[in-house]
Protein backbone atom coordinates (compact mmCIF):
# COMPACT_ATOMS: atom_id res chain seq x y z
CA UNK A 1 0.00 0.00 0.00
CA UNK A 2 1.27 3.36 -0.89
CA UNK A 3 1.89 5.43 2.12
CA UNK A 4 0.31 8.79 2.13
CA UNK A 5 2.93 11.43 2.41
CA UNK A 6 2.41 14.70 4.06
CA UNK A 7 4.61 17.63 3.48
CA UNK A 8 4.96 20.19 6.16
CA UNK A 9 5.95 23.68 5.24
CA UNK A 10 9.50 24.25 6.47
CA UNK A 11 9.74 26.77 9.21
CA UNK A 12 10.80 30.00 7.57
CA UNK A 13 12.52 32.38 9.94
CA UNK A 14 10.45 35.50 10.28
CA UNK A 15 12.25 38.58 9.09
CA UNK A 16 13.37 40.79 11.90
CA UNK A 17 11.08 43.76 11.87
CA UNK A 18 12.33 47.03 13.23
CA UNK A 19 9.81 49.48 14.55
CA UNK A 20 11.15 52.97 13.80
CA UNK A 21 9.63 54.58 16.94
CA UNK A 22 11.11 51.91 19.20
CA UNK A 23 14.50 52.13 17.48
CA UNK A 24 14.53 55.92 17.92
CA UNK A 25 13.54 55.66 21.59
CA UNK A 26 16.05 52.94 22.52
CA UNK A 27 19.13 55.18 23.07
CA UNK A 28 17.14 57.35 25.52
CA UNK A 29 15.95 54.41 27.61
CA UNK A 30 19.03 54.10 29.83
CA UNK A 31 19.56 57.84 30.60
CA UNK A 32 15.85 58.33 31.36
CA UNK A 33 15.85 55.25 33.63
CA UNK A 34 18.94 56.54 35.48
CA UNK A 35 17.38 60.00 36.01
CA UNK A 36 14.10 58.44 37.22
CA UNK A 37 15.96 56.17 39.65
CA UNK A 38 18.05 59.12 40.80
CA UNK A 39 14.92 61.21 41.40
CA UNK A 40 13.26 58.30 43.21
CA UNK A 41 16.35 57.82 45.39
CA UNK A 42 16.38 61.52 46.29
CA UNK A 43 12.63 61.70 46.96
CA UNK A 44 12.75 58.63 49.22
CA UNK A 45 15.75 60.04 51.09
CA UNK A 46 18.20 57.33 49.96
CA UNK A 47 20.43 60.05 48.47
CA UNK A 48 21.36 63.00 50.65
CA UNK A 49 21.15 66.39 48.87
CA UNK A 50 24.62 67.20 50.30
CA UNK A 51 26.01 64.20 48.37
CA UNK A 52 23.90 64.44 45.22
CA UNK A 53 21.00 66.87 44.75
CA UNK A 54 17.87 65.57 43.05
CA UNK A 55 17.43 66.02 39.30
CA UNK A 56 14.45 68.23 39.95
CA UNK A 57 16.56 70.53 42.20
CA UNK A 58 19.19 70.72 39.44
CA UNK A 59 16.52 71.65 36.86
CA UNK A 60 15.13 74.34 39.21
CA UNK A 61 18.65 75.71 39.70
CA UNK A 62 19.12 75.77 35.92
CA UNK A 63 15.89 77.73 35.43
CA UNK A 64 16.91 80.25 38.13
CA UNK A 65 20.39 80.74 36.63
CA UNK A 66 18.89 81.08 33.14
CA UNK A 67 16.41 83.71 34.27
CA UNK A 68 19.14 85.64 36.08
CA UNK A 69 21.20 85.63 32.87
CA UNK A 70 24.20 83.99 34.54
CA UNK A 71 23.92 80.65 32.74
CA UNK A 72 23.42 82.10 29.20
CA UNK A 73 26.38 84.46 29.75
CA UNK A 74 28.75 81.69 30.91
CA UNK A 75 27.46 79.22 28.33
CA UNK A 76 28.00 81.65 25.46
CA UNK A 77 31.57 82.47 26.56
CA UNK A 78 32.38 78.73 26.83
CA UNK A 79 30.89 78.09 23.39
CA UNK A 80 32.89 81.00 21.99
CA UNK A 81 36.17 79.66 23.42
CA UNK A 82 35.42 76.13 22.23
CA UNK A 83 34.44 77.20 18.71
CA UNK A 84 37.35 79.60 18.14
CA UNK A 85 39.85 77.12 19.64
CA UNK A 86 38.53 74.30 17.45
CA UNK A 87 38.56 76.45 14.32
CA UNK A 88 42.17 77.50 14.92
CA UNK A 89 43.43 74.08 16.05
CA UNK A 90 41.37 72.09 13.55
CA UNK A 91 42.36 74.46 10.75
CA UNK A 92 46.05 74.12 11.60
CA UNK A 93 45.71 70.33 11.90
CA UNK A 94 44.02 70.16 8.49
CA UNK A 95 46.62 72.41 6.87
CA UNK A 96 49.58 70.50 8.30
CA UNK A 97 47.92 67.18 7.49
CA UNK A 98 47.33 68.26 3.89
CA UNK A 99 50.85 69.55 3.24
CA UNK A 100 52.55 66.65 5.00
CA UNK A 101 50.24 64.13 3.35
CA UNK A 102 50.86 65.40 -0.16
CA UNK A 103 54.49 66.53 -0.01
CA UNK A 104 57.29 64.17 0.94
CA UNK A 105 59.66 67.08 1.58
CA UNK A 106 57.21 68.74 3.99
CA UNK A 107 56.60 65.42 5.72
CA UNK A 108 60.33 64.83 6.21
CA UNK A 109 60.77 68.38 7.45
CA UNK A 110 57.78 68.67 9.82
CA UNK A 111 56.22 65.35 10.77
CA UNK A 112 58.91 64.13 13.15
CA UNK A 113 58.81 67.41 15.14
CA UNK A 114 55.00 67.48 15.21
CA UNK A 115 54.89 63.88 16.46
CA UNK A 116 57.34 64.79 19.25
CA UNK A 117 55.22 67.77 20.35
CA UNK A 118 52.05 65.65 20.06
CA UNK A 119 53.34 63.33 22.75
CA UNK A 120 53.45 66.13 25.34
CA UNK A 121 50.10 66.09 27.22
CA UNK A 122 48.65 69.46 26.20
CA UNK A 123 47.18 70.03 29.66
CA UNK A 124 50.74 69.95 31.02
CA UNK A 125 51.26 73.21 29.12
CA UNK A 126 48.71 75.08 31.30
CA UNK A 127 51.30 76.61 33.70
CA UNK A 128 53.47 77.72 30.79
CA UNK A 129 50.53 79.21 28.90
CA UNK A 130 49.31 81.06 32.01
CA UNK A 131 52.83 82.48 32.46
CA UNK A 132 52.96 83.53 28.80
CA UNK A 133 49.40 84.70 28.20
CA UNK A 134 47.89 85.20 31.65
CA UNK A 135 44.34 84.02 32.30
CA UNK A 136 42.67 85.95 29.51
CA UNK A 137 40.78 84.54 26.52
CA UNK A 138 43.86 83.83 24.40
CA UNK A 139 45.22 81.41 27.00
CA UNK A 140 42.08 79.24 27.03
CA UNK A 141 41.61 79.44 23.26
CA UNK A 142 45.28 78.48 22.75
CA UNK A 143 44.89 75.42 24.96
CA UNK A 144 41.79 74.27 23.07
CA UNK A 145 43.58 74.91 19.76
CA UNK A 146 46.62 72.85 20.82
CA UNK A 147 44.40 70.04 22.11
CA UNK A 148 42.28 69.83 18.95
CA UNK A 149 45.08 70.27 16.43
CA UNK A 150 46.71 66.87 16.87
CA UNK A 151 43.72 64.54 16.40
CA UNK A 152 42.77 66.44 13.22
CA UNK A 153 46.41 66.41 12.02
CA UNK A 154 47.00 62.70 12.63
CA UNK A 155 43.75 61.63 11.00
CA UNK A 156 44.15 63.97 8.01
CA UNK A 157 47.70 62.73 7.43
CA UNK A 158 46.68 59.07 7.76
CA UNK A 159 43.63 59.64 5.56
CA UNK A 160 45.72 61.12 2.77
CA UNK A 161 48.53 58.58 3.12
CA UNK A 162 46.09 55.67 2.89
CA UNK A 163 44.32 56.77 -0.30
CA UNK A 164 44.02 53.75 -2.59
CA UNK A 165 47.05 53.96 -4.95
CA UNK A 166 44.97 52.32 -7.70
CA UNK A 167 42.61 55.32 -7.66
CA UNK A 168 45.55 57.71 -7.84
CA UNK A 169 46.97 55.78 -10.79
CA UNK A 170 43.57 55.88 -12.48
CA UNK A 171 43.50 59.66 -12.01
CA UNK A 172 46.99 60.01 -13.45
CA UNK A 173 46.06 57.83 -16.45
CA UNK A 174 43.33 60.41 -17.17
CA UNK A 175 45.97 63.17 -17.02
CA UNK A 176 44.41 64.90 -14.01
CA UNK A 177 46.36 67.93 -12.81
CA UNK A 178 47.77 67.88 -9.25
CA UNK A 179 44.98 70.23 -8.19
CA UNK A 180 42.27 68.01 -9.71
CA UNK A 181 43.90 64.89 -8.31
CA UNK A 182 43.65 66.43 -4.83
CA UNK A 183 40.14 67.81 -5.29
CA UNK A 184 38.58 64.81 -7.01
CA UNK A 185 40.42 61.84 -5.50
CA UNK A 186 42.70 62.55 -2.52
CA UNK A 187 40.42 64.79 -0.46
CA UNK A 188 37.18 62.78 -0.90
CA UNK A 189 39.06 59.53 -0.21
CA UNK A 190 40.60 60.97 2.98
CA UNK A 191 37.38 62.63 4.15
CA UNK A 192 36.02 59.72 6.25
CA UNK A 193 39.27 59.64 8.25
CA UNK A 194 39.35 63.45 8.54
CA UNK A 195 35.83 63.42 9.98
CA UNK A 196 36.89 60.78 12.52
CA UNK A 197 39.64 63.18 13.58
CA UNK A 198 37.23 66.11 13.89
CA UNK A 199 34.82 63.99 15.93
CA UNK A 200 37.61 62.98 18.28
CA UNK A 201 38.81 66.59 18.46
CA UNK A 202 35.33 67.69 19.62
CA UNK A 203 35.70 65.47 22.67
CA UNK A 204 39.19 66.83 23.38
CA UNK A 205 37.83 70.36 22.92
CA UNK A 206 35.35 70.07 25.81
CA UNK A 207 37.79 68.25 28.11
CA UNK A 208 40.44 70.92 27.56
CA UNK A 209 37.97 73.75 28.06
CA UNK A 210 36.66 72.28 31.34
CA UNK A 211 40.18 72.03 32.74
CA UNK A 212 41.22 75.47 31.45
CA UNK A 213 38.09 77.20 32.81
CA UNK A 214 38.35 75.37 36.13
CA UNK A 215 41.98 76.38 36.69
CA UNK A 216 42.14 79.90 35.32
CA UNK A 217 38.99 81.76 34.39
CA UNK A 218 36.58 84.40 35.57
CA UNK A 219 33.75 83.26 33.31
CA UNK A 220 32.46 80.16 31.54
CA UNK A 221 30.81 76.93 32.64
CA UNK A 222 34.04 75.64 34.22
CA UNK A 223 34.35 78.84 36.25
CA UNK A 224 30.67 78.52 37.28
CA UNK A 225 31.39 75.01 38.61
CA UNK A 226 34.49 76.12 40.54
CA UNK A 227 32.67 79.11 41.96
CA UNK A 228 29.73 76.90 43.01
CA UNK A 229 32.19 74.51 44.68
CA UNK A 230 33.50 77.41 46.83
CA UNK A 231 29.93 78.06 48.05
CA UNK A 232 29.11 74.32 48.36
CA UNK A 233 26.34 74.89 45.80
CA UNK A 234 25.86 71.23 44.76
CA UNK A 235 22.94 71.95 42.41
CA UNK A 236 25.08 74.29 40.25
CA UNK A 237 28.07 71.91 40.27
CA UNK A 238 25.86 69.06 39.01
CA UNK A 239 24.14 71.43 36.57
CA UNK A 240 27.54 72.35 35.04
CA UNK A 241 28.45 68.66 34.68
CA UNK A 242 25.11 67.95 32.99
CA UNK A 243 25.63 70.94 30.65
CA UNK A 244 29.03 69.59 29.63
CA UNK A 245 27.46 66.19 28.93
CA UNK A 246 24.74 67.82 26.80
CA UNK A 247 27.26 69.98 24.93
CA UNK A 248 29.40 66.91 24.24
CA UNK A 249 26.39 64.98 22.98
CA UNK A 250 25.25 67.87 20.75
CA UNK A 251 28.77 68.18 19.30
CA UNK A 252 28.78 64.47 18.55
CA UNK A 253 25.37 64.69 16.87
CA UNK A 254 26.57 67.61 14.72
CA UNK A 255 29.64 65.59 13.69
CA UNK A 256 27.47 62.57 12.92
CA UNK A 257 25.18 64.82 10.88
CA UNK A 258 28.15 65.99 8.81
CA UNK A 259 29.24 62.38 8.31
CA UNK A 260 25.74 61.39 7.15
CA UNK A 261 25.64 64.37 4.79
CA UNK A 262 29.13 64.04 3.32
CA UNK A 263 29.54 60.27 3.38
CA UNK A 264 26.11 59.12 2.23
CA UNK A 265 27.81 56.95 -0.40
CA UNK A 266 29.17 54.74 2.38
CA UNK A 267 25.73 53.81 3.66
CA UNK A 268 23.90 53.20 0.37
CA UNK A 269 23.17 49.55 -0.31
CA UNK A 270 22.75 47.57 -3.51
CA UNK A 271 19.02 47.14 -2.83
CA UNK A 272 18.63 50.91 -3.08
CA UNK A 273 19.89 51.02 -6.68
CA UNK A 274 17.48 51.61 -9.56
CA UNK B 1 38.19 62.10 -33.80
CA UNK B 2 41.78 62.50 -34.97
CA UNK B 3 43.44 59.68 -36.89
CA UNK B 4 44.33 56.66 -34.79
CA UNK B 5 48.15 56.34 -34.64
CA UNK B 6 50.27 53.30 -35.36
CA UNK B 7 52.10 52.12 -32.26
CA UNK B 8 55.73 51.08 -32.71
CA UNK B 9 57.44 49.36 -29.81
CA UNK B 10 61.16 49.22 -30.51
CA UNK B 11 63.59 47.18 -28.40
CA UNK B 12 61.76 48.01 -25.22
CA UNK B 13 63.11 46.72 -21.92
CA UNK B 14 61.98 47.26 -18.35
CA UNK B 15 63.94 46.37 -15.26
CA UNK B 16 63.06 46.85 -11.60
CA UNK B 17 66.42 46.94 -9.83
CA UNK B 18 67.66 43.35 -10.35
CA UNK B 19 64.36 42.02 -11.74
CA UNK B 20 63.83 41.96 -15.51
CA UNK B 21 60.19 42.46 -16.50
CA UNK B 22 60.65 43.00 -20.25
CA UNK B 23 63.52 42.61 -22.65
CA UNK B 24 63.92 43.26 -26.37
CA UNK B 25 60.24 43.74 -27.22
CA UNK B 26 59.65 44.68 -30.85
CA UNK B 27 56.04 45.03 -31.88
CA UNK B 28 53.98 47.16 -34.23
CA UNK B 29 50.28 47.65 -33.64
CA UNK B 30 48.34 49.04 -36.58
CA UNK B 31 45.49 51.55 -36.40
CA UNK B 32 42.16 49.92 -35.58
CA UNK B 33 43.77 46.58 -34.72
CA UNK B 34 42.61 44.50 -31.75
CA UNK B 35 45.69 42.82 -30.28
CA UNK B 36 45.62 40.39 -27.35
CA UNK B 37 48.70 39.87 -25.18
CA UNK B 38 48.55 36.41 -23.61
CA UNK B 39 50.92 34.48 -21.41
CA UNK B 40 51.54 33.27 -17.90
CA UNK B 41 51.81 35.56 -14.88
CA UNK B 42 55.13 37.38 -14.75
CA UNK B 43 55.59 37.17 -18.51
CA UNK B 44 55.52 40.94 -18.92
CA UNK B 45 52.06 41.47 -20.48
CA UNK B 46 50.78 44.01 -17.97
CA UNK B 47 54.17 45.75 -17.80
CA UNK B 48 54.09 46.29 -21.57
CA UNK B 49 50.55 47.66 -21.31
CA UNK B 50 51.59 50.03 -18.52
CA UNK B 51 54.50 51.29 -20.60
CA UNK B 52 52.18 51.98 -23.55
CA UNK B 53 49.79 53.75 -21.15
CA UNK B 54 52.66 55.92 -19.86
CA UNK B 55 52.04 54.70 -16.31
CA UNK B 56 55.67 53.60 -16.22
CA UNK B 57 58.76 54.45 -18.27
CA UNK B 58 60.86 51.87 -20.16
CA UNK B 59 64.41 51.30 -18.95
CA UNK B 60 65.52 51.30 -22.58
CA UNK B 61 63.93 51.33 -26.03
CA UNK B 62 61.21 53.49 -27.50
CA UNK B 63 57.45 53.51 -27.88
CA UNK B 64 56.43 55.67 -30.84
CA UNK B 65 53.07 56.78 -32.13
CA UNK B 66 53.01 57.29 -35.91
CA UNK B 67 56.83 57.33 -35.69
CA UNK B 68 56.73 60.29 -33.33
CA UNK B 69 57.42 60.60 -29.64
CA UNK B 70 54.50 60.48 -27.21
CA UNK B 71 54.86 64.20 -26.52
CA UNK B 72 54.71 65.07 -30.23
CA UNK B 73 51.89 62.69 -31.14
CA UNK B 74 49.88 63.23 -27.91
CA UNK B 75 47.71 60.15 -28.39
CA UNK B 76 44.49 59.87 -26.39
CA UNK B 77 44.96 56.62 -24.46
CA UNK B 78 42.53 55.20 -21.94
CA UNK B 79 43.02 52.19 -19.68
CA UNK B 80 40.42 49.80 -18.30
CA UNK B 81 41.91 47.97 -15.33
CA UNK B 82 41.13 44.60 -13.79
CA UNK B 83 39.51 46.38 -10.85
CA UNK B 84 36.82 48.87 -11.83
CA UNK B 85 38.64 51.75 -10.04
CA UNK B 86 35.42 53.74 -9.85
CA UNK B 87 35.33 56.59 -7.35
CA UNK B 88 32.96 55.30 -4.64
CA UNK B 89 31.85 58.79 -3.55
CA UNK B 90 30.64 59.72 -7.03
CA UNK B 91 27.50 58.49 -8.73
CA UNK B 92 27.77 56.49 -11.94
CA UNK B 93 27.15 59.60 -14.06
CA UNK B 94 29.67 61.64 -12.04
CA UNK B 95 32.26 58.87 -12.46
CA UNK B 96 31.92 59.18 -16.22
CA UNK B 97 32.19 62.96 -16.21
CA UNK B 98 34.66 63.24 -13.32
CA UNK B 99 37.29 64.95 -15.44
CA UNK B 100 35.06 67.76 -16.58
CA UNK B 101 31.59 68.72 -15.44
CA UNK B 102 30.44 70.86 -18.37
CA UNK B 103 27.10 70.16 -20.09
CA UNK B 104 28.71 68.66 -23.19
CA UNK B 105 30.63 66.10 -21.12
CA UNK B 106 27.49 65.20 -19.17
CA UNK B 107 25.55 64.70 -22.39
CA UNK B 108 28.32 62.41 -23.69
CA UNK B 109 28.24 60.49 -20.39
CA UNK B 110 24.48 59.97 -20.68
CA UNK B 111 24.94 58.64 -24.23
CA UNK B 112 27.68 56.24 -23.15
CA UNK B 113 25.58 54.99 -20.24
CA UNK B 114 22.86 54.15 -22.73
CA UNK B 115 25.47 52.32 -24.86
CA UNK B 116 26.45 50.10 -21.92
CA UNK B 117 22.78 49.72 -20.95
CA UNK B 118 23.08 51.41 -17.56
CA UNK B 119 20.91 54.50 -18.06
CA UNK B 120 18.73 53.52 -15.11
CA UNK B 121 21.75 53.54 -12.82
CA UNK B 122 23.01 57.06 -13.56
CA UNK B 123 22.38 58.25 -9.99
CA UNK B 124 23.49 55.06 -8.24
CA UNK B 125 26.77 54.81 -6.37
CA UNK B 126 29.31 52.14 -7.43
CA UNK B 127 28.65 50.32 -4.15
CA UNK B 128 25.13 49.67 -5.34
CA UNK B 129 26.22 47.90 -8.54
CA UNK B 130 27.22 44.30 -9.31
CA UNK B 131 30.74 43.45 -10.51
CA UNK B 132 29.62 43.29 -14.16
CA UNK B 133 27.76 46.59 -13.93
CA UNK B 134 30.82 48.26 -12.39
CA UNK B 135 32.99 47.04 -15.27
CA UNK B 136 30.45 48.38 -17.77
CA UNK B 137 30.68 51.77 -16.05
CA UNK B 138 34.49 51.52 -16.16
CA UNK B 139 34.27 50.74 -19.90
CA UNK B 140 31.97 53.71 -20.48
CA UNK B 141 34.37 55.95 -18.52
CA UNK B 142 37.31 54.71 -20.64
CA UNK B 143 35.35 55.64 -23.76
CA UNK B 144 34.76 59.23 -22.61
CA UNK B 145 36.81 61.87 -24.42
CA UNK B 146 37.00 59.67 -27.55
CA UNK B 147 40.16 57.63 -26.98
CA UNK B 148 42.26 56.57 -29.97
CA UNK B 149 43.82 53.68 -28.10
CA UNK B 150 42.01 51.52 -25.55
CA UNK B 151 44.12 49.41 -23.21
CA UNK B 152 42.36 46.58 -21.39
CA UNK B 153 44.32 45.11 -18.47
CA UNK B 154 42.46 41.88 -17.71
CA UNK B 155 39.22 43.79 -17.20
CA UNK B 156 37.01 40.70 -17.23
CA UNK B 157 39.12 38.49 -14.96
CA UNK B 158 36.85 38.74 -11.94
CA UNK B 159 33.53 38.25 -13.74
CA UNK B 160 31.40 35.12 -13.95
CA UNK B 161 31.33 33.24 -17.29
CA UNK B 162 28.03 34.62 -18.54
CA UNK B 163 28.75 38.26 -17.64
CA UNK B 164 32.21 37.83 -19.10
CA UNK B 165 30.82 36.65 -22.44
CA UNK B 166 28.36 39.58 -22.55
CA UNK B 167 31.16 42.03 -21.76
CA UNK B 168 33.36 40.52 -24.48
CA UNK B 169 30.59 41.09 -27.04
CA UNK B 170 30.00 44.63 -25.78
CA UNK B 171 33.70 45.55 -25.94
CA UNK B 172 34.06 43.99 -29.39
CA UNK B 173 31.07 45.82 -30.84
CA UNK B 174 32.18 49.18 -29.39
CA UNK B 175 35.80 48.80 -30.52
CA UNK B 176 34.71 47.86 -34.06
CA UNK B 177 32.11 50.60 -34.24
CA UNK B 178 34.53 53.27 -33.04
CA UNK B 179 37.53 51.76 -34.88
CA UNK B 180 39.68 51.91 -31.77
CA UNK B 181 43.12 50.42 -31.55
CA UNK B 182 42.68 48.00 -28.68
CA UNK B 183 45.23 46.04 -26.69
CA UNK B 184 43.87 43.38 -24.36
CA UNK B 185 45.93 41.67 -21.68
CA UNK B 186 44.41 38.37 -20.62
CA UNK B 187 45.28 34.97 -19.15
CA UNK B 188 42.40 33.43 -21.04
CA UNK B 189 43.59 32.29 -24.47
CA UNK B 190 40.02 31.53 -25.60
CA UNK B 191 39.00 35.07 -24.73
CA UNK B 192 42.00 36.35 -26.67
CA UNK B 193 41.19 34.17 -29.70
CA UNK B 194 37.56 35.22 -29.64
CA UNK B 195 38.21 38.94 -29.45
CA UNK B 196 41.52 39.75 -31.12
CA UNK B 197 42.69 40.16 -34.72
CA UNK B 198 46.14 39.19 -33.53
CA UNK B 199 47.34 37.23 -30.52
CA UNK B 200 50.80 37.97 -29.17
CA UNK B 201 52.28 35.40 -26.80
CA UNK B 202 54.42 36.99 -24.10
CA UNK B 203 56.87 34.58 -22.55
CA UNK B 204 60.23 34.96 -20.82
CA UNK B 205 59.75 38.74 -20.71
CA UNK B 206 59.42 39.21 -24.47
CA UNK B 207 56.97 38.70 -27.32
CA UNK B 208 57.77 35.15 -28.31
CA UNK B 209 55.21 34.39 -31.02
CA UNK B 210 52.04 35.67 -32.60
CA UNK B 211 49.01 34.27 -34.37
CA UNK B 212 46.28 35.86 -36.43
CA UNK B 213 42.89 35.61 -34.74
CA UNK B 214 40.15 33.58 -36.42
CA UNK B 215 38.38 35.57 -39.14
CA UNK B 216 35.02 34.62 -37.68
CA UNK B 217 35.02 35.04 -33.89
CA UNK B 218 31.70 33.15 -33.74
CA UNK B 219 33.30 30.04 -35.25
CA UNK B 220 33.86 28.08 -32.05
CA UNK B 221 36.14 25.52 -33.76
CA UNK B 222 38.45 28.16 -35.21
CA UNK B 223 38.52 30.05 -31.90
CA UNK B 224 39.31 26.83 -30.03
CA UNK B 225 42.14 25.90 -32.38
CA UNK B 226 43.78 29.31 -32.24
CA UNK B 227 43.44 29.25 -28.45
CA UNK B 228 44.96 25.77 -28.28
CA UNK B 229 47.87 26.86 -30.45
CA UNK B 230 48.57 29.87 -28.27
CA UNK B 231 48.40 27.64 -25.23
CA UNK B 232 50.91 25.23 -26.76
CA UNK B 233 53.38 28.09 -27.23
CA UNK B 234 52.82 29.34 -23.71
CA UNK B 235 53.36 25.87 -22.25
CA UNK B 236 55.83 24.18 -24.61
CA UNK B 237 57.00 26.65 -27.26
CA UNK B 238 55.87 24.21 -29.97
CA UNK B 239 53.07 25.80 -31.94
CA UNK B 240 51.19 23.76 -34.49
CA UNK B 241 50.35 25.35 -37.79
CA UNK B 242 46.70 24.38 -37.50
CA UNK B 243 45.58 27.74 -36.17
CA UNK B 244 47.18 29.70 -38.95
CA UNK B 245 45.79 27.31 -41.53
CA UNK B 246 42.33 27.49 -40.01
CA UNK B 247 42.37 31.27 -39.71
CA UNK B 248 43.37 31.57 -43.35
CA UNK B 249 40.50 29.37 -44.57
CA UNK B 250 37.73 30.30 -42.13
From TrEMBL, chain A:
Keywords of this entry: Cell membrane, Membrane, Transmembrane, Transmembrane helix, Transport
The keyword Cell membrane is annotated on this UniProt entry: yes
Pfam family, one: BPD_transp_1
GO-annotated cellular components: plasma membrane
Subcellular location: Cell membrane
InterPro entries named in the record: MetI-like, MetI-like_sf
Domain of life: Bacteria
Domain ABC transmembrane type-1: 71-255
Membrane topology category: Multi-pass membrane protein
GO biological process, one term: alkanesulfonate transmembrane transport
Residue intervals passing through the bilayer: 21-40, 79-99, 119-135, 141-160, 204-225, 237-255
PROSITE patterns: ABC_TM1 (PS50928)
Family label: Belongs to the binding-protein-dependent transport system permease family.
Protein name, UniProt field: ABC transporter permease
Organism: Levilactobacillus spicheri
UniProtKB/TrEMBL annotation, chain B:
Domain of life: Bacteria
Key words of the record: ATP-binding, Nucleotide-binding, Transport
UniProt entry tagged with the keyword Amino-acid biosynthesis: no
InterPro entries: AAA+_ATPase, ABC_SmlMolc_Importer, ABC_transporter-like_ATP-bd, ABC_transporter-like_CS, P-loop_NTPase
Transmembrane segments: none
GO function terms (MF aspect): ATP binding; ATP hydrolysis activity
Residues covered by the ABC transporter domain: 7-229
SUPFAM superfamilies reported for this sequence: P-loop containing nucleoside triphosphate hydrolases (SSF52540)
Protein name (Swiss-Prot/TrEMBL): ABC-type nitrate sulfonate bicarbonate transport system, ATPase component
Organism: Levilactobacillus spicheri DSM 15429
Amino acid sequence: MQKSMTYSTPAVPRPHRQRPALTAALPFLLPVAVVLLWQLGSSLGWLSSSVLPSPWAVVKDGVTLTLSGELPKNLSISLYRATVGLLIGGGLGLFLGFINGTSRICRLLLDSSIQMIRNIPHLALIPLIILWLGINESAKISLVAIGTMFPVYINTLNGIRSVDPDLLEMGRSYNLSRHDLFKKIIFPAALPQILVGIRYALGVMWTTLIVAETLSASSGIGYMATNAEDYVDMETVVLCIVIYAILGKVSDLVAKGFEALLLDWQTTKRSEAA
Amino acid sequence: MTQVPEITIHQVAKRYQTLTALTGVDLTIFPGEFVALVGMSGGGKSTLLRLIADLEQPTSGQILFDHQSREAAAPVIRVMFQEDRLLPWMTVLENLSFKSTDAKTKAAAVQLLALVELSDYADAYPGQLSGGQKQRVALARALMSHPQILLLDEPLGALDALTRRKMQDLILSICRQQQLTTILVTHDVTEAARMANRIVVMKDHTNLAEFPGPRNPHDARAVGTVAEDALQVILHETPTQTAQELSSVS
